[in-house]
TrEMBL record:
Belongs to the metallo-dependent hydrolases superfamily. Hydantoinase/dihydropyrimidinase family. CDD domains: D-HYD (cd01314). Keywords: Hydrolase, Metal-binding. This is Dihydropyrimidinase. Signal peptide: none annotated. Its cofactor is Zn(2+). It comes from the Bacteria. InterPro entries: Amidohydro-rel, Hydantoinase/dihydroPyrase, Metal-dep_hydrolase_composite, Metal_Hydrolase, Metallo-dep_Hydrolases_sf. Residues 58-448 form the Amidohydrolase-related domain. PANTHER family: COLLAPSIN RESPONSE MEDIATOR PROTEIN, HYDRANTOINASE/DIHYDROPYRIMIDINASE FAMILY MEMBER.
């Protein structure tokens, strides 16, 4: 097995930082050692196969993006990144594991949908991957099938309170699925927006001739995110189901989660970079049809209501526990443009899988979160939350050697112009400048990105079976 020593860097974990060398044997980390240590009288730098100099740089666990949608059929089209292109872009950006969503469509068997996602991803991925299971048709058979998921290495499932006629579950279905989830040791993930009420508002806005992308954000009012979040929390309380609310954007939804946590309930929330940086007015309200680039659900919120500040604050106080991307990219040409003249036909989704680590690092530079919290919300908590900890999310003996060497003195320009690697004809982040740079990325001991050169291969990434989720209160 080849040995690698990452030397001279500052190793950063969720709890601290310090000078240490990282010794890797094959796919695993074997030791964190004092810089310049000797083993059996020999200097390690002379005995290992490869030495990587990380002087002046941070050495962190590879990022885990726990919310992606590669090749997802949605909104009359299919998300533009495949497992091949999307995981390659993720690797470029310092993410070494994704957890994507297998989608059970209405009328489909859960097992068949999971197999479909395995077939789509197998042999295609540049980095390791796992799946959550979307239950899009809660019925007796799918509830039975949910009981098989832990045996398949799947420890979480997702329901939608939005998208009536597509993925939507009503309250009775949610209650039953949560009961089964609680009983089976599965974490319930929830898209919390009141879909039927949104559909009424969409119809009314369109009837008034309000067809621009901006009105996507008006129809999906924060009240309908707050209400659904509250309802999900109450149903979870009743059933004893731990609850994880995805893509939280409204400060009022954050407050619902915080209040439930204060009462001692096992509820958690993720937010996404778009809700920390972008707004209803500046992006969704861009001139003409431009705003379509930022149509996603939950939607971007008003910059006048301090949702962004509250989300950063919640990340600091652990009222929100982690940051994923909800990576679901659609091109403007041939996909987003289906909604010219009717915002409700714009496929919902933003592509960010490549930029999450950088965008969150900018939060460190800007004084919004600490360096340690950066590691925690992008790697360590996702690993714990979703049953990967020990193997992923930590630099410790026995863990997979998924490692990012991050250069705080480097610089990253984001956008199509700067040649991003996602399969998109635009970037939701065009022009963003980051005061840091992903320098080197190792996936299970193999260097996949080295100083702006991609060295990975499709098929290097493996499916990772997950343990039960670890609920952090
Ligand atoms: N929201 C999105 O923006 N895209 C995918 C699905 C979702 O809920
Ligand atoms: Zn969603
Ligand atoms: Zn999603």
């Amino acid at each position: 097995m080849a040995t690698t020593l990452i030397t001279g860097g500052t190793v950063v974990s969720a709890t601290g930082r310090g000078a240490a060398d990282l010794l890797i044997d094959g796919e695993r980390i074997v030791a964190l050692i004092e810089p310049g240590a000797t083993v059996l009288g020999a200097n390690l730098t002379e005995t290992v196969d490869t030495v990587i100099d990380a002087t002046g740089k941070y050495v962190i666990p590879g990022g885990i993006d726990a919310h992606t949608h590669m090749s997802m059929p949605f909104g009359g089209t299919t998300a533009a990144d495949t497992f091949e292109t999307g995981t390659r872009a993720a690797a470029w950006g310092g993410t070494t594991t994704i957890i994507d969503f297998a989608v059970q469509k209405f009328g489909e068997r859960v097992q068949d949908s999971l197999q479909t996602w395995h077939d789509m991803a197998a042999g295609e991925c540049a980095i390791d991957y796992s799946f959550h299971q979307i239950i899009g048709d809660v019925n007796d058979e799918s509830l039975r099938a949910m009981r098989e998921l832990p045996g398949e290495g799947i420890s979480s499932f997702k329901l939608f309170m939005a998208y009536p006629g597509v993925f939507y579950s009503d309250d009775a279905q949610i209650l039953r699925a949560m009961q089964t989830g609680a009983d089976t040791g599965l974490l319930t993930m929830m898209h919390a927006e009141n879909g039927p009420a949104i559909d009424v508002l969409v119809g009314q806005l369109l009837a008034q001739g309000k067809t621009d992308p901006y009105y996507h954000g008006i129809a999906r009012a924060w009240e309908l995110e707050e209400e659904a979040t509250h309802r999900a929390i109450m149903l979870a309380k009743l059933t004893g189901a731990p609850l994880y609310v995805v893509h939280v954007s409204a400060k009022q939804a954050v407050a619902q989660l915080a209040a439930a946590r204060d009462r001692g309930q096992n509820v958690f929330g993720e937010t996404c970079p778009q809700y920390l940086y972008l707004s209803l007015e500046d992006q969704l309200g861009a001139p003409g049809f431009e705003g379509a680039k930022w149509v996603c659900s939950t939607p971007l919120r008003s910059k006048h209501d301090h949702h962004q500040d509250e989300a950063w604050q919640a990340l600091r106080t652990n009222d929100l526990q982690m940051v994923s991307t909800d990576h679901c990219p659609f091109c403007m040409k041939g996909q987003k443009d289906m909604g010219i003249g009717d915002f409700s036909k714009i496929p919902n989704g933003i592509g960010s899988v490549e930029h999450r680590m950088d965008l969150m690092y900018q939060g460190v530079v800007d004084g919004k979160i600490s360096l340690e919290r950066w590691v925690e919300i992008t790697a360590t908590t996702p690993a714990r939350m979703f049953g990967l900890y020990g193997r992923k999310g930590v630099l410790a003996p026995g863990a997979d050697a998924d490692v990012v060497i991050y250069d705080p003195n480097g610089h990253t320009s984001i956008g199509v112009e700067a040649t991003h690697h996602m399969n998109m004809d635009h970037s939701a982040w065009e022009g963003y400048e980051i005061d840091g740079h992903v320098d080197t990325v190792l996936s299970r001991g193999k260097v996949v990105v080295d100083d702006n050169t991609y060295l990975g291969r499709k098929g290097d990434g493996r499916f990772v079976r997950r343990d039960p989720c670890q609920y952090l209160t």
